[in-house]
Amino acid sequence: MDRGRGASRGRATAGRGAATAAPEWLIERGLDRSSLVAVHTGDCWDPGKRQMPATREQARDAIRQQVPACSKCRPDTRLGLLE
Ligand SMILES: [Zn+2]
């Protein structure tokens, strides 16, 4: 189902030296790619199959928009949303 798409990503990876480390946050998407299933920390051991790297702002926004925080890695705690 994903065939034919994907050409638009990865174009920024041509150069070297700008490589970033593993993403700090991950957002797990649903099958339809528009829905968000869960928010994870970048080092979650169970981030799902369709996660995409996210910035701290994106992760926090997702949680604020009712995207569930992963119960295993607790990104909401790490983001400081549960004080
Ligand atoms: Zn997680």
Going across the biggest sheet, name each strand in turn. 2-1-3
What is the number of strand segments?
A: 3
Distinct ligands, ions and cofactors found in the model: zinc ion
Mean pLDDT score:
84
Regions with pLDDT < 50 over 5+ consecutive residues?
A: none
Give the C-alpha Rg: 14 Å
Approximately how much beta-strand content do the residues carry? Answer: 15-25%
Q: Number of helix segments?
A: 2
Binned, the helix content reads 10-25%
Distance between the termini: 41 Å
What structural class is derived from the secondary structure elements?
alpha+beta
Task: Estimate the global geometry from the Cα principal axes.
Answer: globular
Q: Which H/E pattern describes the elements?
A: EEEHH
Task: Note down, in words, how this protein is organized.
Strands 2-1-3 form a three-stranded antiparallel beta sheet. With 83 residues, it is of the alpha+beta class. It is globular and about 45 Å long. The protein is built from two helices and three strands, in the order βββαα. The model has no long low-confidence stretch (mean pLDDT 84).
Please describe the structure with a list of short key phrases separated by commas or semicolons.
binds zinc ion; 3 strands; three-stranded antiparallel β-sheet
What's the quick description here?
Helices cover 16% and strands 18% of the residues. With 83 residues, the protein is of the alpha+beta class. The mean pLDDT is 84.
